């Protein structure tokens, strides 16, 4: 999981999204909104109280080929991950329920 984004964005210059005090059910929508707002080569640092590995898989499913993910700190009480967009945003494609004429 060491997909990388633009190396010029260091953790010191990135915005931080600390979700440790946010109720767990509210975290994923907040993180997805933050990721969705990123432009190509932008990133933020996610701070969490557990390994956010499942989020990595969710983001990759939704934004295939656009996710950079670099662990900056890995527990045992705090995880810090640099999350970035590595490719331009793509509009969601709709799948027709019937053949298009």
Please, could you describe this protein's structure?
- This protein has 101 residues and is of the alpha+beta class.
- Helix content is 20%, strand content 25%.
- It contains 2 helices and 4 strands; from the N terminus they run βαβαββ.
- The longest helix has 10 residues, at 27-36.
Give the helix/strand layout.
Layout: E1 15-18, H1 27-36, E2 43-48, H2 53-62, E3 67-74, E4 79-85
Parallel strand pairs: 1-2
Antiparallel strand pairs: 2-4, 3-4
Helix share, percent: 10-25%
Counting helices, strands and paired strands, the structural category is alpha+beta
Beta-strand content estimate: 15-25%
Shape designation: globular
Report mean pLDDT, rounded to a whole number.
84
Largest pleated sheet: 4 strands, mixed
- At the fourth level of CATH, the homologous superfamily is TusA-like domain
Q: Tell me, what is the CATH class?
A: Alpha Beta
**DSSP, total strands:** 4
